[in-house]
Design brief:
disordered N terminus; six-stranded parallel beta sheet; disordered C terminus; 420 residues; alpha/beta; Rossmann fold; 2 domains; eight-stranded mixed beta sheet
Length: 420
């Protein structure tokens, strides 16, 4: 790869990339992540979409991730090369791996195969090592803010770690040239917390996979529901940070009014046994993928999503694309996409009682509920991944352009310019 000696300089102002042209030349991109399919989570899915999109746009992608198990083998194909690093299981998340300190290995790798730009998707030990290696080699580097680890700490009895976790995340991201965030609300929140060089790059949804056309009468019959019965769906981790107490309260209130209503839960996690005990008549489908997952979405009617720890919430857009009415708090993707009473239902943050009341009201009128789902699907049609990839590509190009400028030169800003 071509050598690049430009130093990464801090940006004085926020950065404007929304009007920059898409990158026109082939880039060599080192993409570092500590989660990737077949691991099942929203971060892994989104990263895979971006990596695949960059590859389709004729960029050379070097994907660096932890080895997931002994049988895991690095994939190689034209313009795509996986580098598997040592990893360890994550406590309480046995199906996920985390990286280990690897600066020396990455310095050696990038000295021999120098990328044009390094993108770091996760902030664990592997991500920190990648940041240190990139700065050591004076490589342009940018990052993602994808998971609210600081918010999760409050749900696992370690709320006292909130401040040190935020300090670490701020230090991590402020050493990169740009941090991409999925919503304007999150950009503002992080900006107020002292994060710099933030740029909004939203997320898309695959409307070919997630579609009302995936609705399955056979699946509904397996669930024991008739055509005019209400199916409430939850998809996601079954874990404390997902606020499942509110999910339970909402469905209990629905069931008291409609004994035929059915709760379907897709996912797994440490609170599985507790939730099963609370809802013995619910359908617990476990983890689902591909067309099977799409059928579970489309065969429901009302999507209940009470989480308050998302950076975006891919399940929100997947449910909308599948033609479901979504009930969520006014937060993350839901706040960005849902207009209450038009294409879904929003409740003020932390108003658990309001969430329960809205769930009961939606369940009381199945016709209106399904009409919201029709409009939700129309909204999702505009969330095209190709435009998201083009914007992501534009941020990478802007980071590289700024890194190539002489010391002290004030460039265009990398985040989006907003009035005070």
């Amino acid at each position: 790869m071509n050598s690049r000696n430009a130093q990464i300089h801090p940006v004085a102002d926020s950065i404007e990339v929304s009007h920059l042209p898409a990158a026109r030349r082939q880039l060599r991109i080192a993409f570092v992540t500590e989660t990737y399919p077949p691991e099942v989570n929203g971060v892994a899915m989104t990263i895979a979409r971006i990596v695949e999109g960059l590859h389709r746009r004729n960029h050379d992608v070097q994907l660096i991730r932890p080895r997931q198990d002994a049988a895991d083998a690095a994939e190689r194909s034209p313009r795509f090369h996986e580098v598997l690093m040592r990893g360890l299981p994550i406590p309480r998340y046995p199906n996920l791996r985390m990286g280990v300190p690897s600066k020396r290995a990455l310095v050696q790798l990038w000295s021999l195969q120098r990328p044009d730009v390094v993108h770091i998707a996760t902030e664990g030990a592997l991500g920190w090592s990648a940041l240190q290696a990139a700065l050591h080699l004076k490589l342009p580097v940018c990052s993602d803010f994808r998971t609210n680890f600081h918010a999760y700490s409050r749900h696992y009895g370690i709320g006292w770690l909130y401040k040190p976790i935020m300090a670490y995340l701020r230090k991590f991201h402020n050493r990169t040239a740009c941090t991409m965030v999925p919503t304007e609300a999150l950009r503002q929140s992080l900006d107020h917390a002292g994060f710099k060089n933030l740029s909004v790059v939203s997320r898309g949804v695959d409307t070919q996979q997630f579609s009302p056309l995936r609705r399955s009468q056979a699946l509904r019959e397996q669930w024991g529901v008739a055509a005019d019965d209400l199916v409430c769906l939850y998809v996601g981790r079954i874990a404390p940070e997902k606020n499942l107490t509110t999910l339970s309260a909402a469905f209990d209130a629905i069931a008291r009014r409609d004994a035929r209503a059915k709760l379907v839960v897709v996912g797994s996690g440490p609170q599985m046994a507790e939730l099963q005990a609370r809802h013995p008549n619910a359908i617990f489908a476990g983890q689902r993928k591909g067309e099977d997952l799409a059928a579970h979405y489309a065969s429901a009617d009302l999507f209940l999503f009470p989480s308050l720890t998302e950076t975006f919430g891919n399940v929100t857009t997947e449910a909308m694309a599948s033609g479901l009415a979504v009930l969520a708090f006014d937060y993350a993707a839901a706040a960005q996409l849902i207009r209450t009473g038009e294409n879904g239902l929003l409740v003020p943050i932390d108003d658990a009682a309001g969430f329960v009341q809205a769930a009961v009201a939606a369940a009381a009128d199945l016709t209106a509920c399904r009409a919201l789902g029709v409009q939700a699907c129309e909204t999702a049609r505009a969330l095209d991944w190709s435009s998201i990839i083009a914007r992501f590509e534009g941020v990478l190009e802007a980071v590289m352009q700024r890194a190539a400028l002489p010391q002290g030169h004030v460039p265009l800003t990398l985040g989006e310019r907003h009035s005070a």
